[in-house]
Amino acid sequence: MRLQKILYLLPMVLFSPVINAQALQNDPEINKMVSEIKANSLESTVVKLVSFGTRHTLSDTKSKTRGIGAAQAWVKSEFDKYALESNGRLTSKIDYFTIKADGRRIAVDSQLGNVMATLKGTDPSDDRVFIISGHLDSRVTDVMNTTADAPGANDDGSGVAAMMELAKIMSKRSYPCTIIFVAVTGEEQGLYGARHLAEMAKAEKWNVAAMLNNDMIGNSLSSGTRLSNNTKVRVFSETIPYLETEEEAKMRKAINSDNDSPSRQLARYIKTATEQYVPQLEVELVYRNDRFLRGGDHTPFSQNGFTAIRMCEMNENYDHQHQDLRTEKGVKYGDLPEFMDFDYLRKTTAANLASLTNLAWSPRSPKNVGIEVKELTNFSTLVWEAPEGKAPFGYQILIRSTADSQWQKTIFVKETKAEIAYSKDNFFFAVQAVDELGHPSLAVFPKPIR
CA 396, 400, 402, 406: dihedral to nearest 10 degrees? Predict the structure, then answer.
């Protein structure tokens, strides 16, 4: 049925040589999933997380009602409820690990735990893994204060709530690849949970195709400047990959691909999917790994060679971030649910869903994408190989001028070679595979073929 609903758009794609990158028809199933995200459901999750008093990484692990241990147990219990509607494909666990005292934010050797739900893919030959995360731990002004109330509503109850909402909705559907939903801990103490997971993924050779980190996505009013904006969300992505080799650096400099790292392609993908599926929300691409001199849980994944980004609200409010609960000169401080914008959180959650479902249903990316440079011409010839696994319906060549940050035009082709009337001197290109329903793979930037 879904195929029949989409096929009518294909003549437009096939016979219009150039179409806008945003012009493809929406997948009705993704539209339906986006509509299932409810602001009041997200609010209920955030309020429940706040009810544990503090979720400090080093807080109580024995109590059933207060501290990080109780919060972890509750998140896992919710994952287990979702599993009942997943036909056995969703499983959950708390992945415990030990962190040695570091003389800074880990006072003594401590056991930490990431709460993980794994939605197993249906295609045994598709080894792709997609990860979406939020951090469960919270803090107040003193990062070593393990007992004071630290509600952590927005930081990062918002990211955990979004991740859980996706787990609930997406686990009712099937995907060829594997998706991991995770509430990491230890973020405020030094990204320990994310680092543990990233290093495990690398050691076990997971094919992590993309990692989406959500950290503070539920506030729309800035402190100080009092800017209010619930129509924009930031996506941060690294410029130069952490593990770039000397040869890769030479190639990057030769072809000027400084703005086209795999993580940057993921950020552009999220912008396209969000603005296609989520009304009244625009993605602001921020061309740095994270906020100025700051970091998040995507960073350890980038450092281990994986494609990773951070989603974050447009305007941070420092009155409600890393603050003791108090009132001073009529100003109420603290990270409480009353200061959040839950309809904004609904939209940022939908941005994650639109991106992740498109990625999970897409073909794998084309291989060995290249651009011919054997002769001087005002045309550009791109060649590539079909991806492994199920054959795609076709391919999209993405085009943008060298001064633009986002793809401007798309050319649809069926073959694995195309000559286009755009000069490689004036434009950048990338190629992605597309299935019959319009789900595109991550784009691949071409290398020169001599």
Answer: -100
pTM over 0.85: yes
pLDDT along the chain (450 residues), means of 10: 43 37 74 98 98 98 98 98 96 97 94 98 97 98 97 98 98 98 98 98 98 98 96 97 95 95 98 98 96 94 98 97 97 98 98 98 98 94 96 97 95 97 97 97 96
3-state secondary structure of 202: helix
Q: What is the DSSP string of 166-186?
A: HHHHHTTS--SSEEEEEEE--
Give the per-residue pLDDT at 141.
98
Neighbours of 27 (CB within 10 A): 22
- Count the alpha carbons within 13 Å of 38 in the hemisphere toward its beta carbon: 7
Per DSSP, the residues of 300-349 read: HHHHTT--EEEEEESS--GGGSS--SEEETTEEES--GGG--HHHHHHHH
Is 298 within 8 Å of 201 (Cβ atoms)?
no
Smallest Cα–Cα separation from 263: which of 196, 208, 203?
208
Tokens 């994952």 — which residue? 79
State the amino acid at position 5 in one-letter form: K
CA distance 306 to 81: 31
Q: Helices marked H in 93-245 — which ranges?
A: 157-170, 187-190, 192-203
Identify which of 339, 44, 136, 54 has the alpha carbon closest to the alpha carbon of residue 218: 339
DSSP for 256-316? T-TT--HHHHHHHHHHHHHHHHSTT-EEEEE-SSSSTT---TTHHHHHTT--EEEEEESS-
Q: In the numeric block, which tokens belong to residue 314? A: 């447009």
**How would you list the strands of the sheet with 207-214, edge to edge?**
90-99, 110-119, 178-184, 128-135, 207-214, 308-313, 232-237, 282-286
For 200: left if phi > 0, alpha if psi spans -120 to 50, otherwise beta; the answer is alpha
Please state whether 77 falls in left (phi above 0), alpha (psi between -120 and 50) or beta: alpha
| Nearest in space to 186 (alpha carbons), one of 222, 124, 247, 135 | 135
